[in-house]
């Protein structure tokens, strides 16, 4: 997995702080076919609930409501969206408790733990890519209020070459292609295998 790609121009959006929530989390919430997430830390986060509620003005700040992003994930799997999370450490307690309350999501959400994973990436529908410093946590993705967020930077792009390269690397880790040579076998919960591997999603 060692490489250095040739220099070339790409078109990308630079993302920092709350921009992660507004751009990256929003892209995930609007997914139509697939969401692949790679993160070192995995925690529960709350997102604004934009579903229409009779008698409530969506723009009224005082009446804003929030719900777990796992409830959003449950909606997505109900629409046939494939969800994968590749993570380095066990999910937080709140994440696990909320997932336990979502039986459909628990069956459909594919999760694999690899202690070597430290890259942070989000791929949506095979056509949106985020790469940066942010873990899948509220503080990392700008879902926390001012003064409670991490200082994070990244970029988002629809660049075909980067999308192909990141999905190729993600898939390699996902199916356990690096397990045989890994020196963390004594602390790893188990080698990954190809049973849950799936073809790369087609772009729009």
Describe the 3D structure.
- By secondary structure, the chain is α+β, with helices and mostly antiparallel strands.
- Helix content is 25%, strand content 21%.
- The chain is built from 5 helices and 9 strands, in the order βαβββαβααββββα.
- The protein has helices at 19-29, 69-78, 93-100, 103-108, 160-174, and strands at residues 12-16, 34-39, 46-48, 66-68, 82-87, 110-113, 120-124, 128-132, 153-157.
- The strands form 2 sheets. The protein has a 7-stranded mixed β-sheet with strand order 1-9-8-7-2-5-6, sandwiched between helices.
- The protein is globular.
- The model is unreliable at 194-200 (pLDDT under 50).
Unreliably modeled segments: 194-200
- Helix run count: 5
Order of helices and strands: EHEEEHEHHEEEEH
Describe the main β-sheet briefly.
7 strands, mixed
Mean pLDDT: 89
Shape designation:
globular
Summarize the structure.
The protein is of the alpha+beta class. It has five helices and nine strands; from the N terminus they run E-H-E-E-E-H-E-H-H-E-E-E-E-H.
What tags apply to this protein structure?
globular, 9 strands, two-stranded antiparallel ribbon, seven-stranded mixed β-sheet, alpha+beta
Write the layout of secondary structure elements.
Layout: E1 12-16, H1 19-29, E2 34-39, E3 46-48, E4 66-68, H2 69-78, E5 82-87, H3 93-100, H4 103-108, E6 110-113, E7 120-124, E8 128-132, E9 153-157, H5 160-174
Parallel strand pairs: 2-5, 5-6
Antiparallel strand pairs: 1-9, 2-7, 3-4, 7-8, 8-9
């Amino acid at each position: 997995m060692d490489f250095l790609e040739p220099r070339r121009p790409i078109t990308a959006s630079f993302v920092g702080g709350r921009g992660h929530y507004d751009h990256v989390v929003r892209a995930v919430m609007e997914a139509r076919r697939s969401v692949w997430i790679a993160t070192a830390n995995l925690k529960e986060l709350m997102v604004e609930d934009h579903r229409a509620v009779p008698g409530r003005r969506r723009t009224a700040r005082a009446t804003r409501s929030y719900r777990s992003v796992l409830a959003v994930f449950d909606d997505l799997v109900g629409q046939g969206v494939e969800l994968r999370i590749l993570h380095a450490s066990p999910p937080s307690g709140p994440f696990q408790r909320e997932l336990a309350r979502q039986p459909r999501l628990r069956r459909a959400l594919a999760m694999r733990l690899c202690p070597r994973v430290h890259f942070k990436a989000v791929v949506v529908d095979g056509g949106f890519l985020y790469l940066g410093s942010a873990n899948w946590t509220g503080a990392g993705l700008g879902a926390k209020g001012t003064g409670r967020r991490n200082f994070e930077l990244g970029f988002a792009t629809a660049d075909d070459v980067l999308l192909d390269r990141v999905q190729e690397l993600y898939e390699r880790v996902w199916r356990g292609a690096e397990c045989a040579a890994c020196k963390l076998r004594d602390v790893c919960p188990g080698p990954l295998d190809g049973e849950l591997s799936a073809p790369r999603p087609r772009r729009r």
